[in-house]
Amino acid sequence: MVKPFSAIQLLAGVLQHLQRDASGEIIWGVITQELLRRTHSRLEEDEGIITQYAFTRGTKVAVLFKEVSASEVKMSFRSRGALDVGQFAHYISPGQGGGHQRAAGCTLQGTLPEVQERVIAALQEELQHQR
């Protein structure tokens, strides 16, 4: 698939600032409104970004946070099977989230930092229960 240059710049911006939790089991990237402006991209150009880091060694769950506005964040989840992210998306965002065991998504209201903190903490708790 041929992608516009802006989509490649968006991918580079996300990969440059990837984060992992202390256990290394959760990895996440972020698309901010500022990154979209800087790369002249659109949120719709996020296709395939999460798959670039979802299978990093030691990772069980990957998240891509997408800042839709100052008060709304969309998320995409990928799992290597350790956690049913379809159920997790439905749990974290009832009526808004869903998918299947290895790929899911949802939308939450709140600022990007608030949503990130809430979702990462909930993922850590879910993974802790499975140990």
Automatic annotation (TrEMBL):
- What InterPro entries does the annotation carry? DHH_sf (IPR038763), DHHA1_dom (IPR003156), Oligoribo/pAp-PDE_c-di-AMP_PDE (IPR051319)
Concerning Gene3D superfamilies, the annotation shows: 3.10.310.30
The segment(s) forming the DHHA1 domain are 49-127
What's the superkingdom here? Bacteria
Q: Which GO molecular function annotation, any one, does this entry have?
A: nucleic acid binding
This protein's name: DHHA1 domain-containing protein
Originating species: candidate division KSB3 bacterium
